[in-house]
Amino acid sequence: MKEKILEFLKQQEGFISGQRICDELGVSRTAVWKYMNSLKKEGYEIESVTRKGYRLLQSPDLLTREAVLSCIKKGEIPGELCCFESIDSTNEEAKRRGEAGAPDGSIYVADNQTNGKGRRGRTWLSPSGEDIFFTILLRPDLPLNSVSMLTLVAASAVAEAVDKVTGQECQIKWPNDIVLNRKKVCGILTEMNMEIDSIAYVVVGVGINVNRMEFREDIAETATSLKKESGHSIERAELLSEILSAFFRDYKLFLEKQDLSPFLESYNQKLVNVGREVKIIKKGEEIIRTAIGINDRGELIVQDAEGNTEHIFSGEVSVRGIYGYV
């Protein structure tokens, strides 16, 4: 109920009468008054004027369930939405919920992670009140070799939403990073749990540097935030809602096509690897190639000095000019 009231307030440019809220939601004026006071205690600045009603003046930057749902259209989240002040890892929570039978399309959001992680067991720093950490639990009907493409679907959705909300033009570093001005602002970690010969569930975890301004010394040269690059604070609930809207739209298309053909052109336009020299480390071997783009299976197409092409499905890929690789 509180999220519906918050949604009404956000949709209005001026005042909305208490009676209209009562009529729309079927609650009493006393209930509306209590919900308004609850929102004020959370930090929402709400003006109330006799015979005019209520007006939202300012919203705090929260990642509560009410804040997220107030920004997103009804029905766009197919599963459950759970928001936590602090948790060990949203990926780990999604796996626990997945084992317990949580539905496809469920989302787990944290304001802080105490044990966040990136690819290859790396630590993902997760301070409170500044960034976005969330995981989507999926139960896709896909062949096992198609699961890795979900990382690219997620990257495309994040890039689209970041551009829309910030006015910046970010890029994608294949397969799982979002880059602004040659520095990393987002990482994506996809993990799969299998049954005997099929997918039990997949978790797609996303960590975005949103409003933080300070980074520890060992990553200060390679990481940045949306606030640092845009020059202004970003409302996290709004950005998250845009990402989820784009992701579930594209996820539906992906399941229909079973490949990345609907997004191939837009993804390649965003791909920072294109036309650049890349260093690929796979099974201990290091090779240098020039990236051309991705195919509809999500593989990175690269070319050697003689013009021969090959498709890279996995491995560490560094891009010249990005993250300090020179």
TrEMBL record:
Binding residues annotated for biotin, in chain numbering: S89, T90, N91, Q113, K184
UniProt cross-references to Pfam families, sorted A to Z: BPL_C, BPL_LplA_LipB, HTH_11
Key words, A-Z: ATP-binding, Biotin, DNA-binding, Ligase, Nucleotide-binding, Repressor, Transcription, Transcription regulation
Location of the DNA-binding region in this protein: 18-37
UniProt xrefs under CDD domains: BPL
Listed Gene3D superfamilies: 2.30.30.100, Bira Bifunctional Protein, Domain 2, Winged helix-like DNA-binding domain superfamily/Winged helix DNA-binding domain
This enzyme's EC code(s): 6.3.4.15
Keyword match Nucleotide-binding: yes
Reaction catalysis annotation: biotin + L-lysyl-[protein] + ATP = N(6)-biotinyl-L-lysyl-[protein] + AMP + diphosphate + H(+)
Gene Ontology molecular-function annotations: ATP binding; biotin--[biotin carboxyl-carrier protein] ligase activity; DNA binding; transferase activity
Record-level GO BP terms: protein lipoylation; regulation of DNA-templated transcription
PROSITE patterns: BPL_LPL_CATALYTIC
Function recorded in the entry: Acts both as a biotin--[acetyl-CoA-carboxylase] ligase and a repressor.
Protein family per UniProt: Belongs to the biotin--protein ligase family.
Protein's UniProt name: Bifunctional ligase/repressor BirA
Species: Anaerobutyricum hallii
